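User: Can you predict the 3D structure for this chain?
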Amino acid sequence: MSTSDPPVPHAQQAARRYPCSYPGCSKSYSKLSRLSEHHRSHTGERPFVCDDCGKSYLRETHLHAHRRSHLPDSQRSYVCTESPGCGKRFWTLQHLRVHQDTHRGDKTYICPEDGCEEAFSKHHQLRAHVCEAHSPPGTKPYICPHPSCDKSFPTNQKLRGHMKTHDDKRYTCSHPSCTPDLNGDPVYFGTWTALQSHLRTAHPPTCTHESCKGRTFASPHNLRAHLKLHEQQEVEALLQGERLDDDDVETSHSRKRRRGGELGRDWKCDYARCEKEFKSKRALTAHHKVIHLGQRNHLCPHPLCDSAFGYKHLLQRHLTKIHSSKRARSSSSSSDDTTDAEASEATTEVDVIEEITGKAYARRLQNAGFIRCPFPDVEELLLLPSDTSVPSTSSRKTCDHVVTRAYDLRRHLKAEHGVVVDKAKVDRWTSVQKCARAS
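Assistant: Here is the predicted structure, written as structure tokens:
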């Protein structure tokens, strides 16, 4: 410091001893206790609570001042003697002086509008005057001073909360890659939505597990659920290793491992004779609707197809195997001497006619990969013929459903016809049908 510079007062030096470390806040205090009180304004903590009404405050002195509101007026120390018969009592000398000014006729609150000479002894009277005389109808006492904002509020607390929306540096990104160095500035955002959008695009939640190779997720909630699966897989691996040590190799290979492992299946189906277990309530609800209630909410969008499925992936498989061939056939059947529009219209008309007459379905069955549902002739495939009921002869209509795998056929017979079949019998029957069609 040069000799020409004025000396810094001791009070200012003390005020700089405890600056606020919150990003974007430049306030500082001379006492550590005052800095702690200021930090609560950032965190929202209000530890001082009134036992009588439950109101909470940032500072203990504010709580003491509030508690006096529950005491009778006779305990107020300052009494008005300005006017005979007044006798009003106050807790502080400042409030008493403001009240005495009303007796003297002193009006310290002057209307700031040009050309208005109104003055008032109390601030709330001035606010009410500005709302009635100089503001649009319906304006509340506390008006936002921002130039482009015309909002108003009934209390000062709501106004202060609204003023934060005009702060361009209200939110800051706390991600390590956005943390500034000594010479940089933090990344600020004016709204919570903008900050969340920044986090989703610039810092998406990422799995740090090696097998995931940087897989990202839409929200931290999804990432936490995914990490829980990793934890369960690690425990499953440890348990599997212990089983291999205790059991022989033949027994360990014969035990079928369910997809997703055995741990975490806390959601059990309470339907009679159903022992299914799931890892989420959502999976349990879907199972109950599809298996026990028979809901088929995923409908095929093609107008001439009445297929419905309980799960979305089954509908996607149906569209790929059944209806994708139509699009390929439509694009390849157009001749070279017709336009694209004419060819599309012609093939669409032919497809409609063939669907009505059944030729399109017969042509699909010519493919060796498709197998037609054998219902109602399923007696040779039944698991327990004595316990399984098959529809009577009058209601045994032929099923036109086609599948490509024995697994799909078993699911179809159980879901659509209520028939439980034997896995080994269906596998053998499917192999025979595929060989017959291939030959």
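The two ends are 102 Å apart (CA to CA). The first helix runs from residue 10 to 15.
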